[in-house]
Amino acid sequence: MSIKEQYTLYEQISLTYLHEQNYAASVHFFLFCVKLQPEHSNAWYGLGDAICELANEQKSGEIYDLGVSFIKKSLSIDPNNEYPRSILAMMTQSTDVGPQRIQGIPTFNEKNISEIKERFTLKQEALAASFKSCSDDNRIRLAMFLCDVSDHFSFNLLNEAVINDKNLHVKLAIMKRLYVYSAHPPLKETFEYLAEENRWRSYNPYFYLTLKQISYILPQINKTDWATKILEAIDPSQIHQSNGGSFGRNGS
């Protein structure tokens, strides 16, 4: 996957959380955007906008000024970008902020980015809570984006959600894409758990199809083919008989 493609995924994740008004998670993922493309004006604008929203939520003037410094950074990269230009003009005209405060905030210095990342990067528990707080539709969207990112933190989050999420369509959206984590050892435990006591039937037909994909990938990456053993332990002839026609709605 190219840097541009990675950037687009993280941007979509960030914007989804911003739409959900989960500003801490939005900031967390916009930090990946500025890391991937530090010369992308919209990356700094998005980070600044999310930080300002977080500041308003927490009633923190210090965090708000930091957000403004990111927006100024965005405009310094691309003086023709209307997003930072417009929001800075709006802030300048606001009675709550005003021109003196805006003028007095320096453009963000990238030398301080490590400190910012340490301060605003969320722990695994907070990321899981952020995911759970989103609407059903946006959890499906996030599942799609996070599986495409396919890194360690997204695996932990989605591996738990595929079993415990409250919405079946969210579970199925995740199940369809779990093969991207074939190299992660805990995935075996998840499928073994779902294979017990016919739990897998609720995931028809994707439980079977995803296991088939995993069984194809594992030998290619020199991993033990546990997926085939699980397939052999269940009755494949029954896999398409239960609920198979009702899944996949809502674009999941």
Automatic annotation (TrEMBL):
Protein known as: Tetratricopeptide repeat protein
